[in-house]
Amino acid sequence: MQSKPQVMTEPAEIFDAVRQAKAARRRVGLVPTMGALHAGHLSLVEKSRAACDVTIVTIFVNPTQFGPGEDYGEYPRTLNADAEKLAPAGADYVFAPRGDAIYRPGHSTYVEPPQVARLLEGQQRPGHFRGVTTVVLKLFHLIPADIAFFGQKDYQQSLVIRRMAADLDVPIEIRICPTIREADGLAMSSRNAYLSSDQRRQALAISEALHKARALRAAGEKQASSILDAMRTILVQSGIEEIDYMALADPQTLENRDQLDEPAIALIAAHVGQTRLIDNLRIE
Ligand code: AMP
Question: Using an 8 Å Cβ cutoff, are 5 and 87 in contact?
Fold first, then answer.
């Protein structure tokens, strides 16, 4: 039985813990999250435990990545339950700062996100990746880990962070880990907690549409427009009315592909009731 992770709220405290770990030549893994932890997050902790000596999970609902009218206020905040889940997972430290410890009075400096942030989520959620890159770079400074672990679930975010780390010479390896799904295929997400049981059934159409894209390509269909039509049909038939985007794109640049001669990434963002969900799947 693992003991509970040590919870720290002060930036200086966690910085010091990392400094000591590194002085002792221990490899440090970082798993940044917004909390409301589920098996997807815990899989990142597992990867960190396998590769590093010390694992730090950060829990911070970052205000600067939410737009006006988004769910910043409602986002589930479950620190005690999260710490309980992290004990068996074997995390060593939880860094759960207060908002004003990260954005101190007078804060006005932001990261300008890379090119790949402009498409898809960047179009739907202006300012989102500016908030993400800013908070992640701040976390990278406070917790100068050896490896930082992110999920493929947020595919575009993983590209944005990789690019930012390379462009700004961040000496931390970025590892992208597979999406963890419910048994029926729904990608795990803290926002799934918002869904009613009917909406939970509807939400399944998102992963079904992505798997349909993969199956059609495997059966020889290469035309993106035909595949996108089939994906749309699945979403609409399930009752999903508001689709922010569906894309078959280059896995690195996220530019749309018309013909799937090379591997692509299929991405969907759609609203199920009031809940906005995203998911993606590689199409080889
Ligand atoms: P979040 O708390 O939603 O900001 O996510 C924190 C980290 O967990 C990000 O790197 C996400 O990509 C990752 N993550 C979220 N959901 C999943 C999932 N279902 N499978 C794998 N990683 C995930």
Answer: yes
